[in-house]
Amino acid sequence: MSVSPRTPAGQWAGTVTHDGEVDDYTVTFQDDGSLVVVTQKSTGAGSWSQTDADTFAFFLREDFNTDVTQISPTGFQAAYIKIDIEARLEGDGKFTGKGKAVVHGTDDTVIYSTDAETDAHRVP
After folding, report:
1. What is the residue range of 21's domain?
2. What radius of gyration, in Å, describes the C-alpha atoms of the chain?
């Protein structure tokens, strides 16, 4: 009899740390492999997939809200971020992950890239 892998499907609240900053977010991983993320400054959508019994990867595009002027450390106005994270489920209600965030300007050019670390807990 095979054991099914644990899954991140469901809603999570977490933080992402990058460039000395910490941002809060909420993400919902759907059973169909899609995801939706919401922060105070942005909303995004993407996909996730199980990579092993306790690991998964997720990818998303996060668009800054129209009322937010986000300036990158390189001095350019940011329009959206593409984020790739490799994550590990830890216990029944937590995950941690590391990855890259690539910031794009209003003309779609890459204006900045940074490492990101995240941790989240399942929302009951």
Report:
1. 10-122
2. 15
